[in-house]
Amino acid sequence: MQPPQQAQPPQQVQQPVQQAQQQAQQQQIEYLNMNPNQQMAIMLFAEGIKRKGIKTFKKDAADIANVMKNRVERGFGDSITEVLTAPYQFSGLGSSEFKKALTGNLTDEEEKMFKEALRISKGVMLGTIKDKTGGADHYYNPDVVKKDPSWSKVYSKTKDGVAHRFFNSRNPVKKKPKDNRKDYKQQQINDLLYNGEKKEGKFDDASSKARK
After folding, report:
1. What is the edge-to-edge ordering of all strands in the sheet holding 138-140?
2. Are residues 127 and 206 in the same domain?
């Protein structure tokens, strides 16, 4: 019969957790100290679009980068750093892909994609890569989320990308106009009854104002 295993002291159990937390904090500091072009490139890489290959990456990365830029210009944050590190906004923040790009631990194919991300982010920041999203400031990947986010029913969709859908919060979805033809017909009848006589195609000022 083997002797019972002794429980590890609390310090030994907590040590790996503390190391992971310290490493995450160090990576966050490193990211915050980078220039905006590098920060945007890392986030583009981390957002998961690379999984569909470099062709998809090139097409959707420019649109996503412009969303990031639009958010800065519209006050979602005072800088690209604030926009990219805002809580619960970009799912790539702190992900495994984020850490790979941050540490440079990339495969040859990933290295090509990251260089492309740097080129795109620089072009968007300088304005040489134009916004083709219709001014979008929101997006999501329907293949990743379990259900459409609630804001997708409020903001107007401006573009269907290769892997993402883009929305502009400045253009809320317009409600379908009410069909008031029945009300208008009733107003005609009321006008005729009120005036005591039938007027063919003519209405007084009150009824005209009521129809507008």
Report:
1. 138-140, 165-172, 155-160
2. no
